[in-house]
Amino acid sequence: MEYQIKCVGVLTSGGDSPAMNAAIRAVVRAAISNGIRCKGIYRGYQGLIDGEVKELTSHDVSGIISRGGTILKSARCAEFRNPEGRKKAFETLQKEGIDALVVIGGDGTFTGARALALEYNVPIIGLPGTIDNDLWGTDMTIGYDTSLNTIMDCVDKLKDTATSHERVFLVEVMGRDAGFLTLNAAIAVGAEAAIIPEREAIAEQIEAAIGQGRRKSKNSAIILVQEHAIEGGAPAVAKLLEETHPEYNCRCTILGHLQRGGSPTAQDRILASRMGIAAIQALLEEQRSIMIGIQNDSIVYVPLAKAINEKKDVKTDKWDAMQILSI
Ligand code: F6P
C-alpha cells in the first residue's frame, strides 16, 4: 500500500524520563528507513505553538541511546490546553508540512494529543514516556525501569547508614497519583513498609512493621512513602511516628528529581527502541490516536482515551509480597 505520510513530527512533553532519547532515535530512524522525513519539535507543545522545529537526520540522533533526559527538551504547556493554543500548533504543522505526530510523554501529553487530533484530524501516535508507569494498557512505560533501579540504588545506600545509626528512614518516592515505583522499589530493597495511594496507609501496619523489625533486634527500618499518598509526604509520616514513638530516631530523604535522570537501563533502551519503530509502523498502517503499549513482551495498540481514562491497578500479589516479606 502506498502510504500518504511524507513527514512526521516527534516531540517529548511533560516530565522527562530516561530512554526518551532512545525513543526519539528509533522514531527518526524508522521514519527515514520508510522514506518518511522526520522533524523534531523542541520543548513539547510549546515548541509546536512557537514553531521551534528542526529536521532530524539519522546522524542527529547518533550517540543518544545511552543519554538520559531528552535532546528535544520538554515542557508542560498551559497554552496548549486552550483551543487558541492548539490552533497555533496546527498552523505550525501546516507550515512545516508535518502530516503526522509521534508524542512521547504521559497522561497530560496524551490528553493534549487527543484534543488536537479531534479538532484537526491529525494522525497522532503516543509513546508512553514516564517514570510513573501509570498508563493503562502497557505493562511498562519508557523510563520506569531506570527510575526503579535508581531508587533501589539510593535506598540500598540509605540502608547502610540506617543500620549503622539504628534509625528509621522515611524515603519519599515520586509517582504522581500512582504507587508502582514505590511498591516495586519497596519489594526490591526489602523495605519494612510502603505507603501508596492505592492502599490505605494503615498507621498500625507501619507501626507493626517497624515493631517486628525491632523485635528481630533490627533497630532500623526503611519505609517508602509515595509523594502524594499522604498529605505532607515523608516528613508528615516522620512527624506522626515521632509523636507516638519518641524513641524512634527518624530521618527523611526526598529522592526528588534524581529519580528522573541517568543513563537508561538495557530494558528501557530496548523498550523505547521497539516502541519508536512500532509508532512509525502504526502510522503506515493508518492507525491514529493510539498509544503503543507492551503486554507480555509484545507490542500492542491501545486507544489513547483508554490509556488515559482506565485505571491501572497495583497487583495484589505484590502488595501481599510486601507484607509477607517484611515480617
Ligand atoms: O510524571 C513524572 C513526575 O516526575 C511525577 O512522578 C511527579 O509527581 C512530577 O512528574 C513532578 O513534576 P515536576 O518535575 O514538574 O515537578
Task: Walk me through what this model shows.
- The protein is of the alpha/beta class.
- Helices cover 43% and strands 17% of the residues.
- The strands form 2 sheets. The protein has a 7-stranded mixed β-sheet, with helices on both faces. A 4-stranded parallel β-sheet has the order 7-8-6-9, with helices on both faces.
- The model has no long low-confidence stretch (mean pLDDT 94).
- The site of 6-O-phosphono-beta-D-fructofuranose (F6P) has 10 residues, from loops.
Based on the model shown, name its key terms.
alpha/beta, binds 6-O-phosphono-beta-D-fructofuranose, 4-stranded parallel beta sheet, 327 residues, 7-stranded mixed beta sheet, 11 helices, single chain
Short description:
This protein is an alpha/beta fold and 327 residues long. The chain is 43% helix and 17% strand. The chain has helices spanning 20-33, 44-50, 83-96, 107-120, 144-165, 180-189, 203-215, 233-244, 266-284, 304-309, 316-325, and strands spanning 7-12, 37-41, 53-55, 100-105, 124-128, 168-173, 193-195, 221-226, 250-254, 290-295, 298-303.
How do the helices and strands line up, and which of them pair or pack?
Layout lengths: L6 E6 L7 H14 L3 E5 L2 H7 L2 E3 L27 H14 L3 E6 L1 H14 L3 E5 L15 H22 L2 E6 L6 H10 L3 E3 L7 H13 L5 E6 L6 H12 L5 E5 L11 H19 L5 E6 L2 E6 H6 L6 H10 L2
Parallel strand pairs: 1-2, 1-4, 4-5, 5-10, 6-8, 6-9, 7-8
Antiparallel strand pairs: 2-3, 10-11
This protein binds 6-O-phosphono-beta-D-fructofuranose.
